[in-house]
Design goal:
The chain is an alpha/beta fold and 163 residues long. It contains 4 helices and 7 strands; from the N terminus they run βαβαβαβαβββ. The longest helix is centred in the middle third of the chain and has 14 residues.
């Protein structure tokens, strides 16, 4: 049986925040972002997805939609992944998902993800790859049976030229 894994994805490209006139939580993916989201379907190498969970922000939900649909899943929303959320709450969500086993994809923002990585680093985690989190990048977090993260490796964003 393989180790439980959670793919922690930063949302794909969603255009310029300053140019968006509506509620930022409703800012959608750009065409480039949709290409990146579709690239996650093959780029993550997930063979069986148990759960897709996302910040309620539209750009995060849309980032996981192609992956979730490819596995017959729906994207579930969780406020612990929202921009501005406490990284400790996001880490609790991650550890609970790892404890359930299987593969989970979770999408969050550029403030929550480094907060989670900082918590893991403070706990002694060593990282495989650069400590970075550009849009549409992924941190693959492997867990033990208790849900503790035991390995973290970085995957760069899918090519924006992916179809």
């Amino acid at each position: 049986m393989s180790a439980p894994v959670l793919h922690l994805v930063r949302h794909a490209h969603a255009g310029d925040r300053a140019a968006w006139t509506g509620d930022d939580s409703q800012r959608p993916l750009s065409p480039k972002g949709w290409r990146q989201a579709r690239g996650l379907v093959t780029g993550l190498g997930v063979t069986s997805l148990r759960q897709a969970v996302s910040s309620p922000s539209l750009r995060c939900v849309q980032t996981l939609e192609p992956l979730a649909e490819a596995h017959g899943r729906r994207v579930e929303s969780d406020d612990r992944l929202l921009e501005g959320a406490d990284p400790r709450d996001a880490l609790d969500l991650i550890e609970a998902a790892l404890a359930r086993g299987g593969a989970t994809a979770a999408c969050s923002h550029g403030d929550v993800i480094p907060g989670v990585l900082d918590l893991l680093r403070s706990a002694g985690m060593r990282f495989e790859g650069p400590l970075t989190w550009p849009k549409a990048s992924t941190w693959v977090l492997e867990g033990d049976a208790a849900g503790r993260v035991v390995r973290a490796r970085y995957l760069p964003p899918p090519s924006p030229d992916a179809r």
